[in-house]
Batch of 2 targets.
Target 1
Amino acid sequence: MPGENLSRDEAHERGRLLSVDGYDVALDVRSAVKGEDTFRSLTTIRFRCAEPGATTFADLVAPSVTSVTLNGTVLDPSAVFDGTRITLADLAAENTLTVDAQCAYSRTGEGLHRFVDPEDGEVYLYTQYEPADARRVFATFEQPDLKAPFTFEVTAPEEWLVLSNGAEEGEPSGGRHRFATTRPVSTYITAVVAGPYHYERDSYRRTFEDGTELDIPLGALCRKGLAKHFDADDIFTVTKQGLDFFHDHFDYPYPFGKYDQAFVPEYNIGAMENPGCVTFREEFVFRGKVTEAAYERRASVILHEMAHMWFGDLVTMEWWDDLWLKESFADYMGALSLVEATRFHNGWITFANHRKAWAYRADQLPSTHPVTADIRDLEDAKLNFDGITYAKGASVLKQLVAYAGRDAFLEGARRYFKRHAYGNTRLTDLLSVLEETSGRDMATWSRAWLETAGVNALTPQLTCDAQDRITELAILQEAAASHPELRPHRVAVGLYRREDAAGSLVRYARAEVDVAGPHTVVTELAGAERPELILVNDDDLTYCKTRFDEGSLVALRARLGDLADPLARALCWSAVWGLTRDGLMPARDYLDLVLRFAGRESDIGVLQTLHSQAQGALESYTAPEHREAAARALAEGALHELRVATPGSDHQLAWARHFAAVAAEPADLQLLRGLLDGTARIDGLDVDQELRWTLLAALASADAADAAAVDAELSRDDTASGKRHQVRCLAARPDAGVKARAWADVMESDALSNALVEATISGFARRGQGELLAPYGERYFAAIERIWQDRSIEIGMAVVRGLFPFWRIEQATLDATDAWLTGHADAAPALRRLVSERRDDLARALRARACDAGAGERG
């Protein structure tokens, strides 16, 4: 990995020297079906140099280069190519570079990924480049500010479907496909998808007020093996709704011609915004029953990637420091369009409860950074696709809309697109246009929200008179000592009490206020009757930790489920989870809230988040001496809710999956086995293939299903998805030999694809297996620097995060982590960041366990 890095300074200097007029890229991927490791890549780049005679370099990561020709002169590849860069000396004012190379197919999801479907032996290819893996497929100037038009030609087996960013020109001949030249785009969003994909078509038509018409061909594709599960109609519906929304609000027609959406195997991320050829992970093609939250999540990702066509593709950040200029906007606009243009009207609830939880966690890590970050190189950039860049940035934009006004915000976006179309921008470019449209001081707002790190906590302070009338309601703002910035917040403060026969907690008073500094008085609510609950970030207008006064906390402990408004309820759930993570609420108190009130939660997305957080609280934050009783109570509660849930409902399915995740008692495991073999039945619960694998994974990790049972299940589902499940289940078995094989498969070999590495890691580190896994802590610290050096960054990240010895939450593990960090001060900064983040998770878990243990002693 180190030899493949690119620094910001190098990119800035190259960007100063060069401007690129165009790429012609010809790929021959017929070798993919022959089992060969490489393919031919022939690239011609036309570019200009501001300082003739200068020396620079092109990027290429390839096993070998056949020839390099610069301005008609044939260069010796061994003299100019070092495996990652091609030196270009004595440049002319106008230059032509041609590179003929043998590039490698990927098994890690980076570059041109090659997948062989175990179900039918078919071969599928797709590309994934962000932030800098186009250089694994063709010679490039791999940085976002050197935009250029691209013309792709791909030679493939004649029966294959081949797609790229542009529409195909003419009919393919001899398996050769030529695609229309793109508008100027960055290298990382070019794309090729090739293979015997199942492809469905539709179209989108729009007539604008000036009479012009727009006709966008739509396509959706997946592997042939998934075609029977492919609900392309729903995908097209969301796509058209999104295109309508963005055309209504952006006043800039979709600029990239066609719009294909490819659902591809073994994808590392959720999706990628390649213009005209968006790629998604194929898990969004649902093989079994899923809850409505899964459909909402897919729609959200579709709209997020569509927003990128404007924020990111049309207008692109100059360097990865301003990654937020595309990701935060896409996250915010994706959520806004989801709520206002599709059937998923509760999207802001999901955003508040789930998406922002990601941001709050990231913003409290030692690696926290401002939304606009200091990105020194590509390794920094890779790690900054995080909760701050996405979810905090989107939350900050939601605050900006409240601060500047929605109309001013959207008018600013429209001017931004028109002013910078096909160009690159920095933070200042956006701020200047928003100042124009809002009349607000964006520099001050930016310094507070975009250029500082950390999250503030807002706590209400209540004083009432003898008649239970509010004499003063203040909001106290705090910040961590490490990031002491107190920010301006536009918040809504809601007062709640019982107001109906059912005993529901409802809001009876609300005020919007600008919070500034450590103490802000909410004068608008003076004289109101004493509330049972004060919610200081009602309606989720700002980004903060929500805290409670003592009376409100008492009310929540007793009556959280009585909150009538689903958004207010979601915000309270999020707040008590934050208290638990911070060691301010014992984990068992949080689990008690889940046991008493989660069964009344109407929003399925919130419910599934509660299930995930309850499992985390049990495994990481509950004191060891209390964990067995807490686990038993959680499983009993889950089984009760499963039995009383409406048959066939999303809630029933969610409780079934949660029950499988926490089941441990012999009777519980026997029920899982009965559901799997058909001897037990719960009315309305369809035990389809995906649920079967969930049940089997639980049994395997509890030593209640052997390898033969896992292999027998694979024979029922001998597909790519089934293989991933099988690998996960096999690695989950609590057997020393099993763990040794799984460790070797990941750490001592690079034979597994990225998807199977992920599955093996997921199975390896299962709850309740700490003693069995104890020897691997020392081996982890001994191996990670080698892994980081020898493997791709995707695999390195998966290993360092996934195999950190979190199975032993104890001081000795913390000491071992500190010893590694102290002894490896010169390790790659990105590697040190990953280890320090996991150290922080471990220290947080130890603090939370101490809080939980202390609560037990007091009780």
Note: Residues 264 and 282 are 5 Å apart (CA to CA).
Target 2
Amino acid sequence: MRPSVPHPSHANAEACVPEPWWLGAHTGAAWGLSQLQADEARARWGTNSFEPQAKRSLALQFLARLRNPLVLVLLAASTISAATGDIANAGIIVLMVLLSVTLDFVQEHRASNAAEKLRASVALRARVLRDGATREIPVTEVMPGDLMLLSAGDRVPADGLVLEARDFFVNQSLLTGESYPVEKRPDAPSGDAPELQDALHAVFMGSTVISGSARVGVMAIGPRTALGEVASSIQVEPPPTAFEIGMHRFGLMIMRLTLLLVLFVLLVNVVLHRPLLDSFLFAVALAVGLTPELLPMVVSVTLSRGAMRLAGRRVIVKRLASIQNLGAMDVLCTDKTGTLTEARISLACCADADGRDSARVLMLAHLNSTFESGLKSPLDEALLAHPMDTAAWKKIDEVPFDFERRRVSVLLDRGDARWLVVKGAPDDVLALCNRFERDEGRSPAPLDADALVQLRERCHALERQGLRVLGVAWRDVPADHPHADVRDESALVFAGFAAFIDPPKAGAGEAMAALARSGVHVKIVSGDSELVTQHLCTLLRIPVAGVLTGQEISAMDDIALRARVGRTTLFCRVNPAQKNRIILALRTRGHVVGYLGDGINDAPALRSADVGLTVDSAVDVAREVADIVMLDHDLGVLHEGVLEGRRTFGNVMKYIMMGTSSNFGNMLSMAGASLLLPFLPMLPAQILLNNVLYDLSQAAIPLDRVDAADLHRPRTLDMKFIQRYMWLFGAISSAFDALTFWLLIQVLHADAPLFRTAWFVESLATQVLVIFVIRTRGRPWASRPGAALSVASLLVVAAALLLPFLPLARFFHFEPPPAIFFAWLAGMLAAYLALAEMAKRFFYARLAGAAPSRVRRPAPHRRARA
């Protein structure tokens, strides 16, 4: 038994009925709401979604960020410090923590709001009857009592009762596991059929309409639907992407380094009998300084800015992480219709078995397209563009199109004749025929082996001209034959071929070449013939490395397919399950895979790809599972998206390299200094201030420019690359810190306050200014940084130089350094930046290695999305 929403006619019913709602009697109800009734229903039932209706307040969201373990330790330490009488130091620690958390919160909150607005712009909508008129509303606003209007390609937005239906087939495999379409009719339910799959008069949220149309009364929404009961088990996060795997490994590396460094510092200070509280605060502040706590903010803001820039190019990003996936993508799988072609399909000819133009073939194909109730394909529209008088014919039944059979059949009656007219893929239609028409008016001839070879060769000749071909067949059926099913598709009479032309899209060849130059291998995954697809590739000058057909793929196991996909360019005559296998095979080989599709048959592949792409005109199910929606079906725009993804990766990498080089070096120097000096090299509050000022300078990294050289190839997060970079630049930073220590102790004879002040200034200046070296692989003076980054960095360095001379200095126990120190500082800064530039060139020439375009990961699983 399952809980359900009471029927809208039961206005006072609050309790859940003890049986499935589809077993109840619902006849005679008035369906369709006014806007006032819909508002009342929303107040009662909430929104049609599985997400919590109320978002946490900003205050609670801010407080949630204080749950970071390091932040909690710092706040606890400041409380202990205050309890021991050091109120000033405790207040400064709290202030530094709040500044850091606030900076992160504000930036990421703004990025989140911008992303939410973009997602809302492509949210799914439903057609309902409101106030007596058909209206499109967001799916979340569908209410019990609404009258939904559904047609082929729609995603069913709520559980409901089928009131009217015309050849209405749905796929409800998300709930039942049954992959075959189920026909729904407005029949009374059987009293002994309590199972969901037996409810042939009801539809359920999450199902996909395969063909036909229906009017449905909404019975249940959101968590009260059948899907809502299992939502927690199917609404799982998608498998980790290459970037997410890299970020996880980076986090583990930083955690290990931080733990090692903190334990070392604590041990040294305990052995040297230094004050335990000061040593503990110093160690925790050191951990904060080493932890890249701004990394989530930098990633979010960078991705959000990328999404906004893509929105300006009419590309809407539904899932922010997909921008990074797009930049890392090294294989793009795409259909050809509408992407490589204009999708303006026109009828080229209708030919009989001898290749002559045939009005009869046109008539049969036109009848099939006219009475087919499923989603009209561009081929159907091309046939219907040739008007014919079909008034004498009446439709009796239909066997809808599906991607396994690759054909559609309609049962028609004219009074004096009842025909089954079949249209579909030529090979599939020919396989069902035992006769063929040669001359109109003569009896059909037997379809023997020789005739079959000739017909197939005639079909291939049309395909070699770049024409898409359909086979057309028919058969007489008895006048009392009431229904059509798959078993009727046999002993057919082959009539001929309908051939269509779809010209190449202007600019498609250039866009494909641009993607290839950017390191993205484009593979065409199509249901069309290999001859048609190869002809198109010839016109667009796209090199073809290998071809696999759906029949060949079906004979391969997954291991064999993985061995072939890498060296294959064209996958032809493939069904949805085979498209999905191709994507999974490429991902298992370590590729970052994008898939571009817009049909019902593309949904599995869109789910399984690292980044799913579709267009705004796609069917609901494709738009729902896709990560990125393009308002223009244009590969040129897609190439811009790839470059944008690489810009985001480039800026994220700048922050990571900063945090694992100069910052790591400074923290390493601090740990070493605590071993050699008779006092703490910096006070905990000074370390935290250093960290906050450094974070302020780095917060502008998402606004920085990225060199064109960094956009040429896809890149993923390589831990060996980062580790080598960290150790080389950390060693250089520590060496200059040691030089500073020698200068302060041996030349300036600094006491503890002066030492801490001077080193604070030197460490902050070096680790901030080195960004101008690290941000580019080329010469720093040849790569212009973003204005915001330049201003933020120079202001922070200026603040560090001025701080010892301001009244605020006494709160941090600073004192003004002598003038000679600034002369030494200028020389050391120049030397440090020059050495960093030389080290960078050495690193990229000898140590960096080839940036990988693949990532090792476990075999992917399909993404489950409600």
Note: The longest strand covers residues 159-171.
